[in-house]
Design a protein that fits this description.
Length: 302
């Protein structure tokens, strides 16, 4: 006859089986192994990002020189040495530096206006429902619109000069920064939002003290995207109508040298475009990132 179910429950006094204990014998260790392995010089250099990227850059430059020499057509593809000579010559004459300063001047004006406009739109979006609808509608309309498509309209409205360039740069910066900032604001945890509300923060103080620090990784990503868009848009715009009273920028320098069939100077101008992009990315944004989001533990070093 089967035992009743009530007699099998631990509550009525039946003790579960005890697992037998055992002791494992560890192998005898005469001498501990070497834990710290000193790295060789090659391994230490291989762990430095700058060394690895520098080697890649040197390899690309060697390929450039070898291919240009093999092609033997400096009008179509100049050698690296000819490009460097044109770069040095442009800097020595001062023409290239003036073009670069002109481009950076216009870029900073448009970039600052675009960031300010994005800050206003995003603040309205997080403060009012109508502001959120306005920003959602504007970003859906204008963010997919290429800035280069507005060049004819900018030329019609503002004429040939700096104002037209600033207009297209503002368009390329505003929507990228606003969209990333709004996305960052939406990702702020409710705990931080409630903490700010418990302290009585409202309006701009709530945005400045709670939302912006918490959403700064997304804001920084938007600033980097906006900078890249603005730089590319500026060079493209200057290639079309970047000259006003003989004060064109770096894009106009490329256009002039192309018309004069000075291909090494064109490559030198393109090299300056790349170098400026690397400097801004490597010095400005990486430094800002290291001193903010990485220092706050919100992001890891890449």
């Amino acid at each position: 006859m089967a035992e009743p179910l009530s007699s099998q429950t631990p509550a009525l006094g039946r003790v579960p089986p005890i697992r037998p204990e055992f002791e494992r014998d560890l192998p005898a260790v005469e001498e501990p192994g070497e834990i710290v392995h000193p790295l060789s010089l090659f391994e230490r250099l291989a762990n430095v990002d700058g060394v690895r990227r520098g080697l890649i850059l040197i390899a690309l430059m060697a390929l450039w020189q070898a291919y240009a020499v093999m092609l033997g057509n400096p009008l179509m593809f100049p050698t690296l040495t000819d490009t460097l000579a044109a770069l040095v010559e442009g800097v020595r004459e001062g023409t290239l530096l003036l073009r670069i300063l002109s481009s950076l001047h216009v870029l900073l004006i448009g970039y600052a206006i675009g960031i300010a406009l994005a800050a206003v739109l995003t603040s309205l979006a997080v403060s009012f429902r109508l502001g959120a609808d306005l920003l959602a509608t504007l970003t859906a309309m204008f963010n997919p619109l290429p800035a280069i498509a507005l060049l004819p309209l900018a030329l019609l409205w503002f004429g040939l000069g700096t104002a037209s360039l600033v207009f297209v740069i503002v368009h390329s910066v505003t929507w990228a920064v606003a969209l990333n900032t709004q996305t960052g604001f939406h990702s702020v945890p409710d705990t931080q939002r409630l903490a700010g509300q418990n302290y009585g923060l409202k309006g701009l103080r709530y945005v400045g003290l709670i939302l912006i620090p918490a959403a700064f990784p997304s804001i920084l990503a938007g600033l980097k995207i906006g900078w890249a868009f603005a730089w590319r848009t500026l060079i493209a715009a200057e290639l079309v109508f970047g000259a006003s009273s003989r004060s064109g920028g770096l894009g106009w320098y490329l256009f002039e040298k192309r018309n004069q069939l000075e291909t090494p100077a064109v490559f030198a101008g393109l090299t300056c475009v790349i170098i400026i992009g690397l400097v801004v990315e490597g010095l400005v944004f990486r430094t800002l990132e290291a001193r903010t989001v990485q220092r706050w533990g919100m992001s890891r070093a890449g």
